Amino acid sequence: MKKTLSIIPRPNGSVSLTNGTFLLPDKLDILIPSMQYFFAATQLATLLRSSFGTVCSVGTGKKNAAIQFIVSDDAQTTDSYHLRVFPGGCSITCKTPGGAFYAIQTLRQLADCPSHSFPCCEIDDYPAFFWRGFMLDATRSFCPVPELLRLMDLLSRLKLNVFHWHLSDDQGWRIAIGAYPLLTSSDAPFYTKKQIKQVVAYASQRNITIVPEIDMPGHFMAALVGYPQFSCTGGPFSVPKGGGIFSELLCMGNDEALVFARTVIAEICDLFPGPYIHLGGDEIPLTRWKTCPKCQKRIKELQLQQEEGLLSWFTNQMAVSAREKGKRVIVWNDSVQESYDPSIACQIWSPLDFGRQGVLAGRICIMSDYFHTYLDLPHSMVTVHDAYQYGHSIQNLAGKKYTVPGSEFLLWTEKVYTRKQRDKHMFPRLVAGSEALWTESGLLDWKQFRKNLKGGSKKLFPSGVSMASRLFWNPPVWYSGLRKKIQRMRVRHHSRKSGIVQ
C-alpha cells in the first residue's frame, strides 16, 4: 500500500515522498537569510528540542547548516512555501516569514518522535484564500490575555491568519479608550492598551492579523451606560444580561455623539496595525431614530431618505474617519445599502441576504454563513461536515459576482464561559474549517480529512486542548431535517429583526 503524508490542512501543490529519512542529531545549525526569519526559526528550534531533544543554533552566517531558510520571489503567494526534507537536512523556500512559519507547522505534523526523524519529502503549498479567520466574542464572556495568547498558538497551527476580536456589544465594552474613561469604569473586566499591544505583537509573530470590532451605532448599551447623553433618550441605562436586540442607539442628531464615534475609531486604529476595522452595523432597530427630534432634524438637514439614509450617512462618515487612519471598514451584511461607500467590506452571516445581489456585487464579501460557521451552535446544528463542506460553497462564489477573500468561523459566547467549553465548541469544527479555507475545492476530500484528523490530532495540538467527543461530530441522518428546520427558523427570526427579510 502506498504511503502518504497526513497533513492538515491538505497542501495544494505537489506532495511527494522520497527515499530515506532525516535523522535528527543532538545538535544542528539553522541558517536564516535575515533577522526577519528569526522568530520562525526559533519556533522550529523549539519544536526540534521538545520532540527530539535536538539543540539548535540559529543565525545568518551558518553556511553549512543542516536546515536552511531560502528566500525566493518565485513563490506563488506571500504565504506559500516549498519544503524539502532530505537525509542530510531540510530546506524551506518562501517569499516571506509567513510562508516559512507555515512550513514549520507542516513539519510539526511530519515529526516522527519515536524514530527521531522526518520522512524525506518535497511539498509545494499555498492557500486557496488569503482571509482565513476566526472571530471570538469577548464581550459576553471575557477572555483573559493568557488564554488569548494560547488561542493565537492554536490558530497559527491551523494556518489561520485573521483573528476578528469582538470587543464591544450591549453586554460589555472590553477595551480602554483614553478619551472616554467611563466606558470601562465599572467592575467589568477589560483590556488595557498595554495588553492590546501585547496580543497584537504576539499574533503578528504568528502571521495573524487582528481585526478589532467596535459595534456602532447599535449593540451599544454598554457604552451608553457610561455616556447616556449620547443616546436619543438620555437614559439611564444598565448593561443587559444574555443575548438580545435592543432599541437604544447612538444618537445621529447629537454632534458630541458623532465626535465620540470618530474619537473611538481613531484610538482603535492607532492600537491595531492591520488594514481593517470592523464597525458591526448589524441588528439595528431604527425606531428610536424615528421618534428622536434631533435625528429627524439631521435627516431633513441632509435631505436623506428616512432613517435608512441616516444609517448610510453615518456609516460612510465613519468610513472616512477610518480611511484618514489608513484603514478600511467592515460591517455585517444586515443593513448594507447601495449608498454605502464602495470601500466598505461586508461580512455575510445570513445566506438570505444573497437576494440583494445589486447591493453586494463588486463589494468585498467575507463569508460567515450561519449554517456553516457559527461555532456557538451545538455540533448537532453545525456539524464538522458542514464546516468542511463550506470550502466548496465559498470557492464556487469567488470570482463570480462577488469578491470573496475568504471566510471566518465565529464563536459567540452568550453560553460559553470556560476554556473547556470554548475548546469543545471550536474543535474539531475549526480544524475542518481551516482545511476548507486553505485547500482548493478540487482537493477537498472529506473521507481523507477524517482519516487524517483521527491519526494526527495529537501532533496538531499540544496537550490540554479539549475536543468534542466523536459521538457529537455529526448527527444521525434522521436528525438532518429537523436540524435544518430549526436553523432556518432562527435565521429568519434574526433576519426579520435586522430588516433583511419581512
From TrEMBL:
Signal sequence interval, chain numbering: none
Catalytic activity of the protein: Hydrolysis of terminal non-reducing N-acetyl-D-hexosamine residues in N-acetyl-beta-D-hexosaminides
Active-site residues (renumbered): 283
EC number of the protein: 3.2.1.52
UniProt keyword list: Glycosidase, Hydrolase
One annotated GO molecular function: beta-N-acetylhexosaminidase activity
Any one cellular-component term (Gene Ontology): membrane
Top EC group: hydrolase
Pfam name, any one: Glyco_hydro_20b
Domain Beta-hexosaminidase bacterial type N-terminal stretches: 5-126
Single Gene Ontology BP annotation: carbohydrate metabolic process
Sequence ranges assigned to domain Glycoside hydrolase family 20 catalytic in this UniProt record: 129-440
Superkingdom of the source species: Bacteria
Family, per entry: Belongs to the glycosyl hydrolase 20 family.
Protein's name in the database: beta-N-acetylhexosaminidase
Organism: Sphaerochaeta pleomorpha (strain ATCC BAA-1885 / DSM 22778 / Grapes)
